[in-house]
Design brief:
There is one protein chain. The chain has 6 helices and 6 strands; from the N terminus they run E-H-E-H-E-H-E-H-H-E-H-E. By secondary structure, it is an alpha/beta fold. The chain has a 6-stranded parallel beta sheet, sandwiched between helices. Helix 3 packs across helix 5 and helix 5 runs parallel beside helix 6.
Length: about 160
């Protein structure tokens, strides 16, 4: 499924993103792997770590899921989008609630809209157990994000894009 595909991962320098990249480069042969992240330092560190023949297919794209125009540019040739970008730390999201809303909810909608715009074939969005019966803002924003992706499936119907 991932062979000969252009894959973009939002939050590509986070803990999930780095592990995903390792697994994809070991087990599959993607055409290109685009790491979309707002953290320049983490991108630099990852670039220094990734070596070997498959390192040449990796692209580093500085951007934030809050910026839909940048997302559209990054997704131009993407077949598959893995949406892992989020503000995830409960105390930080409680202290900065609207920042969590902007990243986890508005950012998710931007990923959906940019995916529709770019005719991405498949979108996979990460969730969390905290989205089930949420008791904090983080869980509530991730529950909302999940519902946005489910609704996007309904909007797209049987066409190529399948955000899930």
């Amino acid at each position: 499924m991932l062979n000969n595909k252009v894959i973009l991962i939002t939050g590509g320098t986070g803990s999930f993103g780095k592990k995903f990249i390792d697994v994809v480069l070991k087990r599959f042969n993607p055409k290109k792997l685009i790491i979309y992240s707002r953290d320049e330092q983490k991108q630099f560190q990852l670039q220094q770590k990734l070596t070997g023949p498959k390192a040449s297919i990796v692209r580093y794209f500085i951007g934030d899921v809050r910026d839909i125009d940048r997302l559209k540019l990054a997704m131009q040739d993407a077949n598959i989008v893995i949406h892992a970008a989020a503000l995830k730390h409960v105390p930080i999201t409680e202290y900065n609630p609207f920042e969590a809303v902007k990243t986890n909810i508005l950012g998710a909608q931007n990923v959906i809209d940019a995916s529709f715009h770019s005719n991405v074939e498949r979108v996979i969005a990460l969730s969390t157990d905290k989205a089930s019966s949420p008791i904090n803002l983080y869980g509530a924003t991730k529950l909302t994000s999940d519902k946005l992706f489910v609704a996007a499936n309904n909007y797209k119907g049987d066409n190529e894009l399948d955000p899930c």
